[in-house]
Amino acid sequence: MLDGLRLVLDAALASQWLLLVIACLAVVDALLPMVPSEALIITAGVGAAAGDQSLLAVIAAASLGSFIGEFAAFLIGRGFGGAVRARLVPGTPRAELFGRTERLLTTRGGLILLTARYIPAGRTVAALAAGASRFPVRGYTGYSAVGATMSAAYVALLGFLGGAAFAGDPIVAVGVSLGLATAIGSVAGLVRRLRTAPSPVVEAPPAPVVETPPAPTPVAA
């Protein structure tokens, strides 16, 4: 069974359609975060290590698809910001992330657009929030292009390194690379939760009560 799976994987990695599939899946993933484009990009990175694909072409396809999807989400937020807010259930992690992103866009600007993409569903929420808060189109375009390229290169390089380390078995290479990506994402998520957790409130001790002695009663002459 594993031999058959290896044959299928080898054929997929060498396919001339792989780059187009990566770009299309990245577009959908930027709009619907449950689509696992990261796994496919990692797999393509493994193929690049084996010489079946060009690493630069994999990064270009992934970053282009990601940018197109993010810009589409930005336009949705810009045109339907009120409807987007109304669909978010108050108190849910996504609603809290949306509100926090809108606030950070006014203080940190584009930095949040670069870092939010490493949080699950973060780039989608950041794109919608940027559009809803009327973030400048030119500024968003630049930050999104840089961020999409950075994240695509990071994911593809994970696959490339796994493929180089386990060149004899692409299944192991893909598994190791996916495991490493999951571990890094989990650590990043833990650090984010620790940094955003509310600090414990320390109650000050009650002030001591100073009793004022009663004034002496005057004695009648």
TrEMBL record:
Q: Where is this region: Disordered?
A: 202-221
Give the transmembrane ranges.
Answer: 12-35, 55-77, 143-165, 171-191
Membrane-protein topology? Multi-pass membrane protein
Which residue stretches does the UniProt record annotate as biased composition, category Pro residues? Answer: 203-221
Domain named VTT is located at 35-159
Keywords (alphabetical) are:
Cell membrane, Membrane, Transmembrane, Transmembrane helix
Q: Where in the cell is it found?
A: Cell membrane
Q: What is this protein called?
A: VTT domain-containing protein
Q: Which organism is it from?
A: Pseudonocardia zijingensis
Q: What is the lineage of its organism?
A: Bacteria, Bacillati, Actinomycetota, Actinomycetes, Pseudonocardiales
